[in-house]
Amino acid sequence: MTQNKKSSKSVKNRISNQKFVKWFKNLRKWQRIVAYVFITLISLVVLNTLIYKLTPEVKNPKWGTSFSAQYAKELGVDWRANFTALLDDLQIRNFRLMSYWDISEPSPGQFKYDELDWQMDEAAKRDAKVSLSIGMRQPRWPECHKPSWAKNLGRKDEDAAIMKFTLNTVERYKNHPALESYQLENEAVNNWFGECTPVDTDQGRLDKEFQAVKKADPNHPVYMSLSDQHGLPLNKPVPDKYGFSVYRIVWNDKTGPFKFYLTYPTPIWYHSLRAKWIKTFKQRDIFIHELQVEPWGPTATVNMTVDEQNQSMSPDQIKTNIKFARKIGEPEIYTWGSEWWYWRKVHFNDPTIWETVRGEINRD
Asked: What is the dihedral of CA 198, 204, 208, 213, to 10 degrees?
């Protein structure tokens, strides 16, 4: 009886398969192409979903966060209170801090580091560690933070001015107890984002700058981030560690009249494979230097409503992004958006973002 049922089912499956093959062969050429594309896309979605579910999360990663006093000011919060809350309330002990050129050298040869000094000292008081962003290109818009006096310099003079500023910053902080590493020229060869010129991404200058920093301070590693969350580091310099960003939902305004929220299609396996390539061929470790934990909407965050902010970054999306990052498998993750977490808490009297971050970085 059971054998008869199996035979009957097998016959039905063969008949169904034959019908499908006959139907497919009768399609026109363009229809077959569409069918191939559709089947391929569905197969990829299913495969990516399966890989995502089966990939374990890295346990107890080293958590850090970026902090920009200038961005906190743009949001209208007390930047000192913001930084202190990250240290004392969220108990974050790893930071990427900024040494913006336009802030630190407002006039040629006149250096001003008082705000960064305060941050470094407060971090040291709590045994927190700092990966210090140095160079002309640093996180946050406009990316290339040139002082007004340097914008009309010729290339040779500008390169010399960048080198002088970078090395002056290194000399100031290389013996500071909070300093753990440097991050030189954020996303140095990213030529599609920010107010930068092609000259700003010249890799010859970048290599000279890297070598000069290593000579000025041989005791601290120098990290560099990739262009964004795509690409491979094929050229010099070869830093002590590579960083890459992970963004998930952003406002897309680069497709002509079509503007919409875009979920990046890059899957877990892509990031993991790229990390393995770098470890194999460059013999360097890799870390997530910028995990999106803030909104990316159609206007500046400070002008967005809570509903608009939640379109690209809500408590649920924070959990999703952090889970995604942990599944990549790298044990060091620096989040992006600590100024927004605090602004959302004090400006809107909404602690949900702040508390969600607390829960996520403290689990395990």
From this structure: 50
Output the CA–CA distances (angstroms, integers) from residue 175 to 95, 126, 204, 272, in the order listed. Answer: 17, 17, 28, 35
Report which residue type is found at 214.
K
Please say whether the beta carbons of 318 and 360 come within 8 A.
yes
Contact 121, 102 (CB under 8 A): no
Answer for the pair 43, 313: CB distance below 8 angstroms, yes or no.
Answer: no
HSE, CB side, 13 Å, CA atoms: give it for residue 31. 6
Strand 258-263 to strand 249-255: parallel, antiparallel, or no bridges (unpaired)?
antiparallel
Q: Specify whether the CB–CB gap between 216 and 167 falls below 8 A.
A: yes
In the CATH scheme, what is the code of domain 61-362? 3.20.20.80
Per the CB < 8 A criterion, the answer to whether 243 and 182 are in contact is no
Cis peptide before 221 (omega within 30 of 0): no
Lowest mean pLDDT among 24-28, 80-84, 93-97, 101-105: 24-28
Cβ(290)–Cβ(225) under 8 Å? yes
Query: What pLDDT, on the 0 to 100 scale, is given for residue 46?
Result: 76
Q: Which residues 6+ apart lie within 8 Å of 298 measured at CB? A: 251, 253, 259, 308
Q: Give the lowest-confidence range in 2-6, 153-157, 283-287, 302-306.
A: 2-6
Hey, how many other C-beta atoms are within 10 angstroms of the C-beta on 80?
14
Q: Which residues contact 11 (CB under 8 A, 6 or more apart)?
A: none
Token duo for residue 131: 């990966």
pTM above 0.85, yes or no: yes
- Distance (Å, whole) CA 305 – CA 69: 22
CA dihedral 205, 207, 213, 216 (to 10 degrees): -100
**What is the tally of helices (H) and strands (E) in the chain?**
13, 10
- What is the Cα Rg of the chain in Å? 25
Quickly list DSSP for 74-101: HHTS-HHHHHHHHHHTS---EEEEE--H
Of 291, 187, 286, give the one whose Cα is nearest residue 246. 291
Q: Which of 173, 184, 178, 241 is nearest to 211 (CA)?
A: 184
